[in-house]
Amino acid sequence: MKKWMVVSILIILAISLAACGQNATPQQVESEAVAAPPTVQPQPTQQQVMIPIAGSGGSAADANISPVATPVSPVLKTEIGGDAAMDTAKLDDTAAKMVELVTKQLLADNTALSAADVQVLQATSQQWRDSSLGCPRPGMMYAQVITPGYLVKVKAGGKVYEYHTDTGRTAVLCAIDGQPVK
User: Fold this and answer.
1) Fewest Cβ atoms closer than 10 Å to its Cβ: which of 4, 50, 84, 155?
2) Nearest to 166 by CA among 145, 144, 146, 150
3) What residues have CB less than 8 Å from 13, skipping those under 6 apart?
4) DSSP-based three-state secondary structure for 159
């Protein structure tokens, strides 16, 4: 290739590159080069939908609905004996499966209890920050991935048990009467 052709190609390339940035001033180019990368805003990890009880005088507009756009299972709460008990018949299949898993685990760990003693207080869809399901144990390492699951609270034997689940086969006892389990 002749020297003049190489020089011509380089000149054309330089002009093309200059044309791409012709509207940018040197100050703009410099400020863009040192600008900080955009920050990522953390997303809420808890999702909850509350639906008013039929006949309570409330409307759908009065419902406390989370701003998170991810679909969650509706939770219908009713009052029984002063403790909020849940109508588990209204849960979706996954939430019902997680409530059943929690109940089985609680009964296996507390043989003095029977299924009739267990009252479901809450089953709320969650997005856990990692695979510890919100209950990290000292000395353990967990995958740093958003893990969908449920927060399930049950009352049995005069105590409230808080379990965190994934959407598969894992339920972790995290608190009893509001005190963390170690």
Assistant:
1) 4
2) 150
3) none
4) strand
